[in-house]
């Protein structure tokens, strides 16, 4: 059920890159202005996550996820009637950002922590792949709708998709294995359901305060900010318009982005399997280093047609897209124990802040320079820095502050 929910919610993430050119053409809004709305969406996606993780502890996953999907449906549906740029910022930036933040990867981390003891890395990879699967399903469809019927029906499709998942979440999703009389997978004994934690917002802030006293947190936050900048902020937002600048049809470019999602599924599941067996620090260094190299070559590969080197980039980059998530969650779990889902929520916030900056600055750079080349090269260099930062993360786990102390 968690995988299905993540697939359904992925519809919203597939649309921003498809909106840039149609909105620019219809309303005359600058790419920087449109990028600002996408930037707010991405920032709230991350900043909401740690509070959502704490709210799941307080009210349960089912309530939080159902409300999040309804908010996404409302925000996307209202964009159909917008005529001013501030309405895009309000609907797509604020409402969809808040809703999607509550459906963020902290949801997958919470499910993994509660329901699994063994094979957590593999499960994390499989749940993370839900977003990629959703992109694979929705991106070609939304690009076809946008090209043949306009952006409004595409936005309405996102709204309907998010709303359609709500009944499944409400009736099928369970908060804890104890709700169905089961022990967590791999556990040797039954684990009773914990008492709902009060003071969700305070707990999230306290978890941040404790984690921020460790160097590991800042290294994880810094590398994940670069991860967001080089994926959601850059490729997911600007790849389609950048390819279109070189003469590639929008539908074709969107299909390439969807193919990235195909290989993303394989790469993320494999990364989860590797995380159970190989040092997460080494994995992160490898992933960021390879991603940086691929982005450095991309400006030379963009053209008005698909050719073998571009296909190679799509495959290579797709395998690496969110492969960083399982090892990052594993390091949070290793260092921060019971509060790892909340701490990962804050690390994810940095991911989305990085994505938000590049979503906005990428549009500004395109308006000012007439191309995205400098953005590709800069992001590639940042990935090299992230690879070095990953190797600096401490090997010895930091003693986690008990959850009871943080909740009190």
From TrEMBL:
It comes from the Bacteria. The keyword Heme does not apply. It is a multi-pass membrane protein. InterPro entries: MFS, MFS_dom, MFS_trans_sf, Proton-linked_MCT. GO terms for cellular component: plasma membrane. Keywords: Membrane, Transmembrane, Transmembrane helix. It is found in: Cell membrane. The chain crosses the membrane at residues 29-47, 59-81, 87-109, 121-142, 154-173, 216-235, 255-274, 286-303, 309-329, 341-362, 374-393. Residues 1-398 form the Major facilitator superfamily (MFS) profile domain. GO terms for molecular function: transmembrane transporter activity. This is Sugar phosphate permease.
